[in-house]
Design brief:
The protein has 14 helices and twelve strands. The chain is of the alpha+beta class. It folds into three domains: 8-131, Alpha-Beta Plaits (2-Layer Sandwich), CATH 3.30.70; 169-271, Roll (Chitinase A, domain 3), CATH 3.10.50.40; 291-464, Trigger factor, domain 2 (Orthogonal Bundle), CATH 1.10.3120. The strands form three sheets. Strands 1-2-3-5-4 form a five-stranded antiparallel beta sheet. Strand 2 and strand 3 (33-40) form a beta hairpin. Helix 8 (331-353) packs across helix 10.
Length: 465
């Protein structure tokens, strides 16, 4: 996202509450950002250097003076003027930037990005993101059909098979590994990575003794892992290389070869119970018969599919509305969303590895530059940000409000009859959590409204009211 030509450039001065004047240059662009350049002359800077001196002098010992009593010129000569300037930045930058923003009647949408351009004279620049502009299209004319699924006997059978499998005990066997077995093994795995700087690098992603693996291709990250160990016997060792698919949950492993070392220690198989009335009595709190179990499964699966259908419909409506909406987002917000995504990626890898991983190491594993990675995730980051802005605008457009009674009712619903009900209520008593809860309820109301619009029921509802 590139900045377009600026609309205007304005240079002016302002006073800081009795302090010397500041020279401020203001540029506004058409991407909802204002660039401020603030210049402090020596008199301006002297005010902040003095405050920095008052802080530094309390923590420095200078021969010939009691602690905290050395005059400013002596302290400045001792530590250097640049040190005092650095010490002043913690209060200088926010105070001067805030004053420039307030005196120019600017309403920031998010935290400004501030940088130091020069020290002599002292000049700082601030990019101030304004509220994004969201121009809605005719979303009231959008119509969508809802796709619904019916629960079949096959669906119920699959759930029962899951119960059957979960309740089955594992028994040791004296044979080679087969599909469906549980295998206890010592397992090591190393991902091979390459880059221009380090063409022969690799990174371990698992090294665990007595690791349990169920030989099920459908649930293994690399399905071919099952084929590689089927036929092995207890006490057998094997090394092999497999390749992660491009759709692997961990993007840093996508398409990368991995070297595995396996030592089989034990092989077990499930002893499946017979599915009958007696089996049904052992599921959950118990059922009188297998028929009762099947009926309850059908009820639960129907409710789950209903919720899934609602979620899918909501997502489709938002996607359709987004197509008719024009959104201008400050580039600064986009960059922050991208950086947040990268931080989440590195955190995810750190959890996988059980240790902190730096951005440089992550990029090496991904075999990408930081710029390449940013451009790769930019479309998703923009879409995520725009959907959030769209929801906010729709809530404002439809004047969706939440009353205190509605918040209390939702808190009581979440607490329910739980033994920790009072703790849950206490958790939601803070203003911060109430704001979050309010937003959640607003989105819930909005999605109900959008569903009525999409199904063409909105007029009927208005008439009935």
């Amino acid at each position: 996202m590139k900045l377009v030509a600026t609309r205007y450039k304005l240079c002016y001065t302002l006073t800081t509450g009795g302090h010397p004047t500041l020279k401020v240059t203001k540029e506004e662009n058409e991407q909802c950002e204002i660039n401020l350049t603030i210049e402090l002359d020596d008199d301006d800077l002297a005010i902040y250097i003095k405050r920095a001196y008052q802080k530094v002098v309390q923590n420095i010992k200078i021969p010939g003076f009691r602690k905290g009593k050395a005059p400013q010129n002596v302290v400045e000569r001792e530590v250097g003027r640049s040190t005092l300037i650095r010490e002043s930045l913690d209060f200088l930058i926010p105070e001067v930037t805030t004053k420039a923003i307030e005196d120019n009647n600017i309403t920031p949408y998010a935290r400004p990005e501030v940088s130091i351009d020069e020290v002599e004279p002292f000049i700082i620049s601030a990019i101030v993101p304004l509220k994004p502009t969201v121009t809605l299209g005719d979303y009231h004319s959008i119509r969508l059909e809802e796709e619904r699924k019916e629960i079949t006997n096959t669906d119920i059978d699959e759930v029962i098979q899951g119960y059957q499998t979960d309740s089955a005990p594992w028994e040791p066997v004296s044979r080679s590994i087969q599909e469906g077995d549980l295998v206890v093994m010592d397992l090591k795995g190393i991902v091979e990575t390459t880059s221009e700087d380090n063409p022969d690098s690799s990174i371990p992603f698992i090294d665990q003794n007595d690791y349990e693996v169920i030989v099920d291709k459908a649930n293994l990250v690399i399905p071919e892992f099952a084929d590689s160990i089927i036929g092995m016997n207890q006490g057998e060792d094997k090394e092999f290389t497999l390749t992660f698919s491009d759709e692997v949950p961990e993007p840093e492993f996508a398409g990368k070869p991995a070297n595995f070392s396996v030592s089989v220690k034990e092989i077990k198989e499930r002893i499946l119970p017979e599915v009958n009335d007696e089996f049904a009595k052992g599921i959950g709190e118990g059922y009188e018969s297998l028929a009762d179990l099947r009926e309850d499964i059908k009820k639960q699966r129907t409710e789950a599919l209903e919720q899934e259908s609602i979620r899918n419909y909501n997502e489709q409506m938002i996607d359709e509305i987004l197509k008719t909406t024009t959104i201008i987002t400050p580039p600064l917000l986009v960059e922050r969303e991208i950086n947040a995504s990268i931080e989440n990626m590195t955190s995810s890898v750190s959890r996988q590895l059980g240790r902190e991983i730096s951005l440089e190491e992550y990029l090496s594993v991904m075999n990408k530059s930081e710029d390449d990675l940013k451009e790769e995730i930019r479309p998703q980051s923009i879409e995520r940000l725009e959907k959030s802005l769209l929801l906010d605008q729709l809530i404002e457009e439809e004047k969706i409000e939440i009353t205190d009674n509605e918040i209390d009712e939702e808190i009581n619903r979440l607490a329910g009859d739980s033994p920790q009900a009072e703790q849950i209520k206490e958790l939601f008593s803070s203003e911060e959590t109430k704001v979050s809860l309010t937003n959640s309820l607003q989105i819930q109301k909005l999605m109900e409204l959008l569903t009525s619009i999409g199904k063409g029921n909105i007029k009927e509802e208005n008439e009935s009211n």
